[in-house]
Design brief:
Its main location: membrane. Keywords: Cytochrome c-type biogenesis, Membrane, Signal, Transmembrane, Transmembrane helix. The chain is an alpha+beta fold and about 675 residues long. It is about 45% helix and about 15% strand.
Length: about 675
């Protein structure tokens, strides 16, 4: 029965595994109190120094290049990435910086080093040829005592001209009068900012929650045919093969520690990606191409679990590592044994790790969240080897290997299949293809659930299944639960009031993305304006306050808010009757008409091309509210007075209703004063 409960738990966990995310868009640090300049000084005939000067406004500071320790939190360090050809230039040493200010930060509870007012960084290069180029990308954050603005970037280009290194003349994008006009149109003349807080901090999922989800994924991996039989064999090898009982115990524990470290290290490359370009990982949640790639990968994983083929790494890798483990011995040999286990079990753990990867990287936590998830996964795999070494009598209580292990794999295959369509749905929503409308998506999940039930009841067999003599209680239990889930999904195929499947909020497409004709394209049938100017006109004509909803097609927490919080009668009624709802989709890839496309010049001099609907509303959000997370809610009067503090994801319908009610009361009070 334990196996059955774990299967059910995993089916719930992996499908909620940080699809609860905030949809990120291109960062637009329009409120950026810094400026940058680059120059070159000649030190000798072949040695040149690149000087990067940063000017920071009063009250703000620039973090140093000092990397934070693993157990420390803080702003992302300033980073200089130089791109050049080694035959042209040779980089000499690291980028130098002055001492700066080191001070204990009350928010992050650690010592931080930063620069105020003005700072100059230096990097030496040796010129080796007559002609060539050098590109510099600076990644930086600007902070004050209360917050850090989203990470921004600055680029400079240099060229080698007749053995001299000089700053290249860059052809700036010319800002036309049309660009200035459309930029000004995005700016709101907000009132009441001093009275109510504009929340510019981005919410993040709990890393502990992700760690816990990874841990559960690791527990499920233990129940696969590639891993489970290894537990008694490996523990017995260490406890009986060692010279002393104490040494065997230590070796088994070290084996578990190394397994944990190996899976933790798998997340390191994603931190490197994150440091080069933080938007690489965050863009996954709304990038159609990447979502389709994940869809294909999960389909491949699913059929691997069904037993039609195995996804394995080259046998030569595991053979060589096994030989190393045998020949070297000691701690190093145990380390190679741990790597060998990771390789030979890949056909079972790979798809689960793929789910962890997809779930973590489509969330706003990026590489950090992935590290916590991998850590939890590795710990779950490692614990049995240490615990059974400490308590070897427990080995007698383990169930024997058998056909049930393959059953676990096949069930996981069905879950992977269902998750695959979530990725395809993300791409479909963002691009408006209309392929996976809500009812079609739910219908596919129903078919997958029915197929899984038929399998559990022995009506379907896969290549590696043993002949089923008798249905176990575990298979019957999970089969019944799966059928109950299918029955729960059926109302989602209809156009009835029961079609709002609250338990699954955020997974299927929104209710208005339907095969049925809907009165409106707003959540829950609400009238929602998808253009701010049109919504503002309606608010003025009806003399109602505005509920400004920054949302995204691929934003799961946005769907949860709509289907779990907005659907509560008192919340629904106050939005419907007392507010003008304006929903702006920041990840909408629909192209703007040519006359509405423009180049937006940030205050730091860089230019962002506004080409899609999402580009426009994402810039609108960061320009006016210094925030780029979704969901994000603002209450405004028709005169653009802020009526309450801005908020993000709020799962409590009571708190959200109280927030709406307070905004409405403030609107009535302001209206009464003007009258």
């Amino acid at each position: 029965m334990i196996k059955s409960y774990l299967i059910i738990l995993f089916s719930l966990v992996i499908t909620t595994q940080s699809w609860a995310q905030f949809g990120f868009t291109e960062q637009d640090n329009s409120v950026n109190p810094s400026s940058w300049q680059a120059s070159v000084e000649k030190k000798s005939d072949s040695i040149f120094t690149v000087l990067i000067k940063a000017q920071v406004d009063k009250g703000w500071h620039l973090p140093s290049q000092t990397e934070l320790k693993e157990d420390e939190n803080g702003p992302i360090p300033t980073e200089f990435n130089f791109k050049y050809v080694t035959e042209v230039l040779e980089k000499i040493g690291r980028t130098k910086e002055p001492d700066g200010i080191t001070k204990f930060d009350e928010i992050f509870k650690t010592d931080l080093t930063y620069f105020e007012n003005q700072v100059t960084f230096e990097q030496d290069f040796r010129v080796k040829t007559k002609q060539g180029s050098l590109d510099l990308e600076i990644l930086f954050m600007i902070c004050n005592d209360e917050m850090c603005l989203p990470q921004d970037q600055k680029r400079f280009n240099f060229e080698v001209d007749n053995f001299n290194l000089v700053v290249a003349e860059t052809k700036a994008i010319e800002i036309q009068s049309k660009d200035k006009t459309l930029t000004e149109a995005l700016k709101l003349d907000l009132k009441g900012e001093s009275e109510f807080q504009i929340n510019s901090k981005e919410e993040q999922d709990s890393n502990f929650t992700i760690f816990l989800l990874g841990f559960v994924g690791g527990l499920i991996a233990l129940l696969t045919p590639c891993v489970f039989p290894m537990i008694p064999l490996t523990v017995s090898f260490f406890t009986k093969g060692a010279r002393t009982k104490k040494l065997g115990l230590i070796n088994a524990i070290m084996y578990g520690v190394f397994i944990f470290l190996i899976y933790l290290l798998l997340s390191v490359p994603f931190h490197l990606l994150d440091s080069v370009n933080p938007e690489i990982l965050n863009s996954i949640s709304t990038n159609p191409t990447l979502n389709i790639i994940f869809f294909v990968i999960f389909i491949v994983f699913a059929f691997s679990f069904f037993g039609y083929y195995e996804i394995t790494l080259p046998n030569s890798w595991s053979s060589r590592l096994d030989q190393k483990a045998t020949s070297v011995g000691g701690i190093i040999g145990i380390f190679f044994m741990a790597i060998t286990l990771a390789l030979v079990s890949f056909s079972c753990t790979g798809p689960i790790l793929g789910s962890l990867l997809g779930g973590s990287l489509t969330a706003d936590g990026g590489a950090t969240m992935l590290t916590f998830g991998m850590g939890g996964f590795g710990l779950a795999l490692a614990l049995p080897f240490a615990l059974f070494a400490l308590f070897p009598n427990w080995l007698n209580s383990l169930p024997k290997s058998g056909g049930w292990l393959n059953t676990v794999k096949v069930v996981l295959g069905f879950l992977e299949l269902g998750l695959a369509f979530k990725f395809l749905s993300n791409a479909d929503l963002v691009e408006h293809w209309g392929i996976l409308k809500r009812e079609i998506f739910i219908g596919i999940w129903i078919l997958i659930g029915l197929a899984m039930s038929l399998y559990l009841f022995g009506k379907i067999r896969f290549p590696h299944d043993s002949p089923l003599q008798k249905l176990s209680k575990g298979r019957i239990f999970v089969g019944v639960v799966t059928l109950a889930f299918v029955v729960y999904l059926i109302p989602g195929l209809t156009n009835s009031s029961n079609a709002n499947l609250k338990f699954l909020s955020g997974f299927p497409p929104p209710l208005f993305y339907s095969i049925y004709n809907k009165e409106t394209e707003g959540p829950l049938g609400l009238k929602a304006y998808k253009d701010f100017d049109k919504g503002l006109v309606a608010a003025k004509s009806q003399n109602k306050p505005i509920l400004l909803d920054f949302t995204g097609w691929a934003c799961v927490n946005c769907r949860k808010m709509e289907e779990q919080v907005w659907s509560v009668p008192e919340v629904f009624e106050i939005i419907k009757n007392d507010y003008i709802l304006i929903s702006l989709y920041v990840d909408d890839k629909a192209k703007l008409n040519e006359e509405n496309r423009f180049n937006y010049e940030r205050t730091n001099g860089s230019v962002k091309k506004i080409r899609t609907v999402g580009d426009k509303w994402a810039t609108f959000q960061t320009l006016n509210f210094r925030n780029n997370s979704q969901p994000y809610y603002v209450l405004l009067s028709p005169e653009l007075e802020i009526l309450n503090e801005t908020i993000g994801y709020e799962p409590s319908s009571k708190s959200y209703f109280a927030w709406l009610k307070a905004g409405l009361e403030n609107f009535e009070n302001k209206k009464g004063k003007t009258e």
